[in-house]
Amino acid sequence: YRLAPEAFFPAARDDVLAAFSWLREHTKGLQLGVFGSSAGGSLSVDVGLAEGVPTVSWSGIFDIRQWFADHPAVVAQPDTKTDFVKTASAKIDQGGRNDPFYKWFILNYVDSDETKFPEVEPFDRLTAQAGPLYLANSQEEIIPISGIYQLAHAAEKLGLPVTLQSIPGGQHAEGYLDEAWQGTVAFFAQYLLKG
């Protein structure tokens, strides 16, 4: 999918929805699910909401409006220490909370247009036709854990199945692979292999 700043929101979401549409067309009859981590975790939820398929999100970004309202004094700062092109994804953002970078990342994604926050968050697109959700997040990582609780609460109000995994520490996404993999596989087995 396209990345900011070359392509701002909703480009990435449009790309993954188009890719899934192509995949569904070319895999007729197969049970499909989606799985993503970090920004990909958010995008996997976008697909799950639109397509009604089982969805796994590790460290998806869901708490934006409330987080910004609660953190007005945080000054957005890019991460100038990490080479995001050359660094393995399991090594990126493994230092725990980094509020200045989180704020910068969100603003970079929407070209600093905070009016897009409601469109970026999944809550307004959540319906009873969405797929079951598996949401994992570390308790002290760069992505606020509050987002998975907000999304789970909204999904449960609609009767959607939700599995939450709160992981101790500050590891981000692939950084907690050992802790989340077994639950992820069990989730897909439950929803894709039934019947």
Structural account:
This protein has 7 helices and 4 strands; from the N terminus they run αβαβαααβαβα. With 195 residues, it is of the alpha/beta class. It has one domain: Rossmann fold. The chain has a 4-stranded parallel beta sheet with strand order 1-2-3-4, sandwiched between helices. Strand 1 (34-37), helix 2 and strand 2 form a beta-alpha-beta unit. The N and C termini lie far apart (33 Å). The mean pLDDT is 93. Keywords: Hydrolase. InterPro entries: AB_hydrolase_3 (IPR013094), AB_hydrolase_fold (IPR029058), GDXG_lipolytic_enzyme (IPR050300). Pfam families: Abhydrolase_3. This is Esterase.
Helix-strand topology string? HEHEHHHEHEH
Shape descriptor reads globular
How helix-rich are the residues, as a percent range? 40-55%
In which order are the strands of the major sheet placed?
A: 1-2-3-4
- Overall mean pLDDT score? 93
Structural class: alpha/beta
Q: Point out poorly predicted stretches.
A: none
CATH architecture classification = 3-Layer(aba) Sandwich
- How far the N terminus sits from the C terminus, by CA atoms, comes to 33 Å
Query: Strand tally, please?
Result: 4
What key phrases describe this protein's structure?
single chain; 195 residues; alpha/beta; Rossmann fold; four-stranded parallel beta sheet; 7 helices; 4 strands; hydrolase
What is the topology?
Layout: H1 11-26, E1 34-37, H2 39-51, E2 55-58, H3 65-70, H4 99-109, H5 117-120, E3 133-138, H6 146-157, E4 162-167, H7 177-192
Parallel strand pairs: 1-2, 2-3, 3-4
Helix pairs in contact: 1-2
What's this model, at a glance?
This protein is of the alpha/beta class and 195 residues long. It has seven helices and four strands. 33% of the residues are buried.
